[in-house]
Amino acid sequence: MIKNKHLLILFFVAMILVVIGALFKITHWEFQGINGNTMLTIGLLSEAVVIVLLILKITKDNKSDFLNK
């Protein structure tokens, strides 16, 4: 199973994608057919999936050592 620290890394990568998508949307940039809407959609959906997985993992494991599982 995926460790919590790997889920957090995926979450931060998705956050970066959302920030870059917002920049693309504000400045009306497009890169090879990928625009701000696409980046924001992918980033926000991946953040939601990671949050759900993280919540399920936290509630399943009741140990206090959060990051080193």
From TrEMBL:
InterPro entries: GldL-like_N. The chain crosses the membrane at residues 7-26, 38-56. The lineage of its organism: Bacteria, Pseudomonadati, Bacteroidota, Flavobacteriia, Flavobacteriales. It holds the Pfam family GldL_N. Residues 17-56 form the Gliding motility protein GldL-like N-terminal domain. This is Gliding motility protein GldL-like N-terminal domain-containing protein. Keywords: Membrane, Transmembrane, Transmembrane helix.
